[in-house]
Amino acid sequence: MTKEELWRAVLSEIELQVSRPNFLTWLKNSRLLDAQDGTALIALPNNFTKEWVELKYHKLILGSIRNYDSTTRKIEYVVEGVFMEKANRSKAAKLVARRVSEGQLALPEIKVDPETNLNPRYTFDSFVVGSFNELAHSATSAVVDVVGTKYNPLFIYGGTGLGKTHLIQAAGNEIKKNYKDKVKVKYVTSEKFTNDVVWAVKNNRFEDIKRTYRGVDVLIIDDIQFIGGKEKTEEEFFHTFNALHENNKQIIISSDRPPKAIPTLEARLRSRFEGGMIADITFPDYETRVAITKTKLQDREVALDEKIIDLIARKAQKNIREIEGVLNKLLFYQATYNRTLDMAFAEKVIAEIAEKAAVKVSPSQIIRVVANFFEISPNDLVGRQRNKEFVEPRQIAMFLFRDLLAMSYPDIANKVGKRDHTTAIYAYKKINDDVTKNPNLNQKILMIKEMVSSLG
Amino acid sequence: MKLVVLKNNLKLGLDLVGRAVGSALNLPVLGNVLIKSENNKIRLSATNLELAITKNISGKVVEEGGITVPYGLLAGIVAGLSSERVSLETDKKNNLVLKTDNYEAKCEGIDESDFPVIPRTEKKEELIETSAGPLRDALNRVVVAGEISELRPEISGVLFSIETSGLKLVATDSFRLAEAKISSSQIKNKNKQVADLIVPLKTAQELSRSIKEDGGVHIYLNNNQVLFEAEELEIVSRIIEGKFPDYDAIVPKEILTEILVNRSELSGALKLSGLFASRTNEVKLRIKDKKILEVYSADNAVGENNYLLPAKISGETAKGDEPLTVSFNWRYLLDGIRSGESEEVMLGLNGDEKPAVIRTPGDISYFYILMPVKSLAS
Question: Does B175 contact A104 at a Cβ distance shorter than 8 Å?
């Protein structure tokens, strides 16, 4: 019989003998820490319960324990951790709900918890779930419920500004909230981890690193792709990973790409990352973008016209950070000029931002990116062949010319193998239509657009 | 048990312990107040198992004993009585019989042996003794900056930083932070103790409400709990485990713009502007020139207003060609402005992204820092 089983048996026996409120108040949150050499060590949540249990239930507990383990002669009581009373907790939660505007800056040293490095602003409540991040979200929630054993490690990947950091920090905050002080959480960016390793190498203080990183129950590492190629850091991370994983400590990792696409990552680390759960976050679809925009407006306690929300969601498709940028700008105008935004004005503001986002690329660069993406040669892309594998890339290239560079149809047709301008019109219309119907195609185009904008 | 007490004494005692009454939903006796007489003293106690307050009241003990009765019921009766003297008596069935010249009530009670034992704190572990008045003032000036947070238990309280030469109290909600010092002349640190303890915000609030102007407060610590002992009053509370953030680094060493302004005029201006602030509570402070501070707020749905205050302004007064403007949450700003008595208050600005400081001119025992509200432009 383990001590947990022993204690459960003892409690269920006592439960029959004392009234329900008494049991809930005094004994529910107790634990048996140790039972050895005839002494049982019982942990209670506070001094009040300790005094009371010692005074009132000592004989009862001793008797019940002896029923199962007759060697026990003595019981000692200790106070362990702090559990808030239920009633108080809901009151506390209400106090927290006092709204603080999004713009309110926080004192830099205090807003982040020094022990866990987590920013309390990231919570699951403010995380919008859609089909693009459903898997990552449910995997993370599962990890919060069953820390350490279900999905370990949990590997989340996706492009920038899609909410990776939000998700993994929310997981850390939720774990910290649910398990109070019983579970130690640590959030670190891989940059910080690298700096710590560099510092340790310089000062020969590897013991410090071991103590900080191997003593936690949940380790959350952000942007792991940056440790690729840094040998000493990779090695130290490898050992930390093993030490934690062997002891069923939860590891949560984020990256901008899947493990196998991090070129410089050592094979032994890669295989370990792939040994747990891998979940991706892709681009939000239109409906989710609307939901995200609305959530952000709610956070700021302002309202915008439905039509403008629709416009933002349609235009800002690259990532969530872009939505934030557009919103900030619109709300700034609304606040400064102190008037409600009209559609024409909103369009102007959004166009300004979109213009800024569009980088100066040449048509041939787009052709190269598209060809590269579909793994065909640029010559085939502009060539005459009408095989299926060339037609779609060709149409996408024409669509992008129009969409990104606002080129004229004859010009487009000319650039893509001296075709007739009606071909260009047809290609643009077809892709423009299909994008709304075919999420797969939308995904491809978004990825290509991101590749194009990363050229600038 | 049989006692005779003055109604006002009983009422004062009940008001004090009432803040610690727990929720009767979990365990009925927690919603009760314990009345106990021993060695000719009458003691009232209440607890919610995190905080316990015990207050001795004066009165005549005819027969010793004890009983617990629902707090709300007893407090209600006492508040409504017109007579000066009240007699309290128990009968054999755990009832409390309350009598005056023309009134009699019988309240169902619960046996005193069911009332939680308030954990003993060994008195030999005294940390520090401080004068009550200064402690109360310091508490009042810092608790405004605190907030209870489930995610950040370590800042959900007031830090009592005990040094051999003084006592420092600090509270923060991560948007603002207040520190008050109690000077060495007001404290006695016999055992040369040095300790940091985080006292739950609620305990700190109750403490500041309960202690009087005169006398001293002894602070004892052991076994994760703290005992505050003042005249005829004992407050026992858990302390918060964890480390209070290292806040020294965020206290601005320099001030870019120093504004001296009349305290009550500024707080009046803030309250007015608060009426026009949007739901985000944002008001703007604008430096018109070296002699005028403008308080401005506007909301789409309400309108706008501005208030001009005479001030003495030195340091940076403009940002480029524009007059210097910094936005704040007016409630947070007001909390800081109100935490002092002097006629003038010093407001130190450090641009729109760094913390501002509020001090009383010539007084180094207190400061309040707060972060601005960032305007929406990215």
Answer: yes
Please state, in angstroms and as integers, the Cα–Cα distance from residue A4 to each residue in A11, A26, A42, A97, following that order: 10, 18, 11, 37
The structure tokens 């003691």 sit at: B43
Query: How far, in Å, CA of A362 to CA of B213, rounded?
Result: 78
Question: Given strand B2-6, what is the order of strands in its sheet?
Answer: B60-63, B2-6, B85-90, B95-99, B104-108
ipTM over 0.90 threshold: no
Q: Pick from B49, B240, B378: which is nearest to A328 by CB?
A: B378
Q: Is A256 left (phi over 0), alpha (psi -120 to 50) or beta?
A: alpha
CB A413 within 8 A of CB A420: yes
The answer to whether B231 contacts chain A (CB < 8 Å) is no
Closest CA to A167 of A178, A156, A175: A156
Q: What is the pLDDT along chain B (378 residues), one digit of tens a residue?
A: 999 999 999 999 999 999 999 887 778 899 999 999 988 889 999 999 889 999 999 999 999 999 999 999 999 999 999 999 999 999 988 899 999 999 999 999 999 999 998 887 666 678 899 999 999 999 999 999 998 877 778 888 999 999 888 899 999 988 999 999 998 888 888 878 888 999 999 999 999 999 988 889 999 987 788 999 998 899 999 888 888 888 888 888 889 999 999 999 999 999 999 999 877 788 999 998 899 999 999 887 888 899 999 999 999 888 888 889 999 999 999 999 999 889 999 999 998 889 999 999 988 999 999 999 886 543
How far apart CA A107 and CA B246 sit, in angstroms, is 12
Count CA within 13 A, CB hemisphere, residue B43: 22
B286 at interface of A, judged by CB pairs closer than 8 A: no
Please name each of the domains of chain B with its CATH number.
Answer: 2-114 (3.10.150.10), 123-248 (3.10.150.10), 252-370 (3.10.150.10)
Tokens standing for A112? Answer: 């982040």
Give contacts of B 153-192 with A, CB under 8 A. Answer: 153-156, 172, 174-177
Q: Which residues of A touch B119 (CB under 8 A)?
A: 47-48, 50-51
CB contact under 8 Å between A52 and B243, yes or no, is no
Distance from C-alpha of A336 to C-alpha of B296, rounded to nearest angstrom: 13
- The B residues from 63 to 102 touching A (CB cutoff 8 Å) are none
Q: Which residues make beta-bridge pairs with B234?
A: B54, B229
Spatial CB neighbours of A456, under 8 Å, sequence gap ≥ 6: A359, A360, A361
Contact A340 B300 (CB under 8 A): yes
| Spatial contact of A179 and A172, defined as CB atoms under 8 Å apart | no
Give B324's DSSP letter.
P
Instruction: Give the gyration radius of chain A's Cα atoms.
Output: 29
In whole angstroms, what is the distance from residue B342 CA to residue B271 CA? 19
Q: With contacts defined as CB-CB under 8 Å, which chain A residues touch B201?
A: none
Query: What one-letter code names the amino acid at A311?
Result: L
Query: Which of A58, A80, A105, A329 has the most B C-beta neighbours within 10 Å, making it the best mutation to test the interface with B?
Result: A105
How far apart CA B296 and CA B306 sit, in angstroms, is: 4
Q: How far apart are CA B221 and CA A78, in angstroms?
A: 16
User: DSSP character for A220?
Assistant: E
Cβ–Cβ gap A96/B149 under 8 Å: yes
Nearest to B378 among A104, A110, A325 (CB): A325
Outline where DSSP puts E strands in A201-271. 218-222, 250-255
Q: Walk me through the domains of chain A, giving residue ranges and CATH numbers.
A: 3-79 (3.30.300.180), 112-281 (3.40.50.300), 286-357 (1.10.8.60), 363-453 (1.10.1750.10)
Q: State both tokens at B322.
A: 């524009």
Give the SS3 label for residue B107: strand
Judging contacts by C-beta atoms under 8 Å, the chain A residues touching residue B147 are 95-96, 98
